[in-house]
Every structure is written in structure tokens, then in C-alpha cells.
Amino acid sequence: MHCGGAAVGGARQFSLAVVEWYRERGDRNLPWRVTRDPWAVLVAGVLLRRTTARQVLGVYGEFLRRWPSPRELAAAPVKEVERALRPLGMERVRARQLKRLAAELLARHGGWVPLSLGELVRLTGVGDYTAREVLVAVLGAREPLLDTNAVRVLWRALGVRPRSSRPYLDPEFVELARSLVPPGGSREYNFGLLDLARKVCSARRPACFECPVAALCREAREAPLTRLPRDGLPPLVKCRRPRPLEPARRVVCQPQREDVSPDAEHLDEPHGVIERDPRAY
Ligand code: SF4
User: Fold this and answer.
1) Is 18's C-beta closer than 6 angstroms to any atom of ligand 1?
2) Does ligand 1 have an atom closer than 6 angstroms to the CB of 157?
3) Is residue 80 in some structural domain?
4) Which of 103-117, 218-232, 256-270: highest mean pLDDT?
5) What is the C-alpha to C-alpha distance for residues 130 and 98, in angstroms, rounded to an integer?
6) Which residues have a Cβ under 8 Å from the Cβ of 86 and sit 6 or more positions away?
């Protein structure tokens, strides 16, 4: 089998490179990535839409402390939920969506989150992406997470893209993407691919010179000059120096590229946005 010209051996190398990179540079400590609680993953999936991870981190722990399962949330006054979500914005929409979700889980599943794709996608506000995200995060299921960013990397690296603007509607593409998920390594591979897409293979400025899959990437082979740092030098850094009257402090150097911050990327590429706006890639 071929992946847009890359043989299966290359596909395997691709997956392993992503996993290794994630172990070194991925955002492995995000609370919704370390938990195996399906409710916690589902809540994160809803909250992370159209907002940044940093903002969600500000409310997530307290939200789960107050409403640790669908049962508590279903019983909570909607105004209280709204207040808790105010720092994220769109709190009326989010609060009602989560309340509806909690009520459905209570009525149909006894307050548990079902761990089957078919049942998850039948829940209000849960699309293919979020459903698969729950299965990957909780069970380590061998499913691909195909948001806008992940699709972009597969497209560039392997030369394949879904025939539909909604990738989950293209069974061949999903099958191909699934074949790249290493057995036993679904969480690390999927989270790694999402992080790699945001931090390295960004939409406007892919940083191929620091990409772990550059040697396997079709796009990098075909347009290498546009993917290197200018003049072959390392990326520019901008140094922020202390103001003159401040006591001497350590000079802080920050990478200048706008896509280094993991949280910043969530701003322009909302988590799970593929369910609503798949046209961006
Ligand atoms: S080598 Fe460049 S274009 Fe290819 S996946 Fe990496 S960052 Fe993206």
C-alpha cells in the first residue's frame, strides 16, 4: 500500500518520528491529556472549541471539582454554570450545551459517558472529532484525530488529502490516517501530530528545518528552499531586556515565531474546529 507515494515503511517511520517528537516536545501535561476520565475529556473537548488552552486551564479544574460527573452538572442551575464559564466567553452557549449533554448522558446512559463511537456521536454537540478524541484519550483506541491541523500535516507530508471538506466523510482517507496510528501508541501519536501541526507545521510558516518528519515529507522535498530559515541561519530570536531602572535581571530570549506557544495556537486553530469549519486547510 502507498501513502501518496510514500511506501508503508515510510509511513511507519513517520508515525514513530511523531511519537518520539511528542515525548520530547509535546504538551504532555495538559490535564485533559493525562486523565482517563471520559467525562473530563468530553468537557475539555467542548470547552476547547474556539478558545485557547490557556483560557480553558483557568476554569477546567474548578469546573470538574464542582461538577465531577454528568449527574452533578445536570442538577446545577444554568446561571451558576454560566458564571463558571464566563472567563472563556460564549458562556451562555457553552453552559447550555454542557447542561444538555449532561442531561442526555443521565437520561440515556445512567450518567456515564458511553465509549462507543456510534453512541458518542448521537449526543448533542458531539461530532466525529470529539467522539474519537474521547476514545483515543480514554481507551487509546486506534483512531485518527483529524482536525484542520492534523489534516494539513498529512496532506503536506504524504501528499494525501480527504476528498470531502469534512475528513471523516472520506472513508479512504480515514482508513489511511488510521493505518498511520501505531498499535499501542495512539495517544502519543495523535497528540503528537496535533502539537506538531501547531508548533512546527503551521499553516503559514512551516518550520521544516526543525521538523522530525522532514526527511519523509513530500512538501519539504518539493519546495525545500521556502522551508528553510532565511540564509540558512537559525530562526531569529528577539531579546527582551530589562528596563534601565530595574535591577539587573536575567535577559529573557524568546523565539520570534508566533507559533511557538502551544496555547497561542489554540486561538487561531480551535480544538475540534473541523466539525464546524473544515475549509481552513
Ligand atoms: S517537513 Fe515541513 S511541510 Fe513537511 S510536515 Fe514538516 S513542517 Fe510540515
Assistant:
1) no
2) yes
3) yes
4) 103-117
5) 14
6) none
The domain that holds 146 is classified in CATH as: 1.10.340.30
Q: Is 259 in the pocket of ligand 1 (CB under 6 A)?
A: no
Within a domain: residue 101? yes
Residue pLDDT, tens place only, 37-55: 999 999 999 999 989 899 9
Residue 233, judged by CB atoms within 10 A of its CB (0-12, 13-18, 19+), counts as exposed
- Per the structure, how many domains does the chain have? 1
Using a 6 Å cutoff on CB, does residue 56 contact ligand 1? no
Which DSSP symbol is given to 90? Answer: -
Kindly give the distance from the C-alpha atom of residue 139 to the centroid of ligand 1, in angstroms, as a whole number.
Answer: 29
Ligand 1 geometric centre to CA of 157 (Å) = 6
pLDDT digits (tens, 9 = 90+) for 64-123: 999 999 999 999 999 999 999 999 999 999 999 999 999 999 999 999 999 999 999 999
209 belongs to a structural domain: no
Domain that holds residue 18: 2-201+264-280
Whether 174 is in the pocket of ligand 1, judged by its Cβ within 6 Å, is: no
Nearest ligand 1 atom, CA 212: 6
Q: Please check whether residue 229 lies inside any domain of the structure.
A: no
